[in-house]
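The freezer alarm interrupted the setup, so I double-checked each line after restarting. Inputs confirmed:
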Amino acid sequence: GCWGGFSLQPLVDDTEDVSLDFGNEEELALRKARIRHPLATFFHLFFRVSAIVTYLLCDWFSKSFVACFVTILLLLSFDFWSVKNVTGRLLVGLRWWNQIDEDGKSHWIFEAKKVSTSIAASTEAEARIFWLGLIICPVIWTVFFFSTLFSLKLKWLALVIAGISLQTANLYGYIHCKLGGKKSITKVTSRF
Amino acid sequence: ELQTREKSGDEGGGVAAPPPMFAGLSDVSISEDIPVEGEITVPVGSHSPDEDYSTLDEPVKDTIMRDLKAVGKKFVHVMYPKKSSALLRDWDLWGPLVLCVSLALMLQGGSADSKDDGGPQFAEVFVIIWFGAVVITLNSKLLGGTISFFQSLCVLGYCVLPLTVAMLVCRLVLLAGSGTVIFIVRLVVVMAMFAWSTLASTAFLADSQPPNRKALVVYPIFLFYFVISWMILTFPPQ
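Predicted 3D structure, all chains:
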């Protein structure tokens, strides 16, 4: 052997302090935290709930129909984008999108992240908040649809329909991811 | 002794579990002066699934910037329409939303009934634009077009840009008065922008149709932009 000249010693001396890596304490706290992506969780609910609240209270905020309409529409659009592109992948590791290949054919792709044990993975609480927010809001907009229809306030109908379509699209996309995501994973990895 | 240098930390994303290291190499002897090195990376094309797989973890700012740049690129493409299939593939509806809202905002307040607070006109413009775009898309799909539903909506929506510019110009011009000259200026501007919109959208959409059906696809687009131009032109001077 080539270890000549060194004498073997036990790795840890009795008198030596074992130094703790302080980074581990933070990781431990993160691992125990119930919500690891506070900002994403907040924004997931913020846009949806603000849109609903604005719709209900628009008469108090402003007399102008146009201002309310544009505000709610913008809130719904931001909500759609953020849930589709950000909170879905951060909170539950799912994602869906549309892709058009060279032939011009359109494919809808649904992805699910394989279970990861890293500390940045999402928690039970986050997933619960995600799905509750995803399911309850389209239901509320459907209720609005019927109330608008029957109270004949038809100028709001366009907005309610837009709200229902955007939120249901996300709901459908993510349910599809959840149920069928495993198939996409194997499809992608088989390319290697 | 065998010396190997591997790139640390790359897993080649989804490669099947590698066999135990150095199995089968124990009987290979290589001279010590020649280091054996290599990279374990899988050559991949720039095809989207691989890109997107890695974008599953990208920071939010990147996502926002990427989408904003895509929208900006499309606006530029409308102003200089040359056929680019790469542009067509990357559709989004942000541009049409922004254009629709701005056009509707500029068009409201044109009714004689001022106590209406512009409500119905705003919703009307909105519905005309989106419903019109959906009908045109359905029409072209029924005629056997190869373009996808959302791509078509995307193109039609973005090509409203010249007309939105025309509306802006009209409103500015109307601030200067309301004579015949002003009307002629407005007429010329609106007609020019209408031609631009129609040409830009047919440049993108007509190619997805078989040649004997191009006119059948073009005329609803013509009608659609005509209706919008009409709304712009008849916007009453205050």
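Quick read of the result. Chain B has one domain: 60-233.
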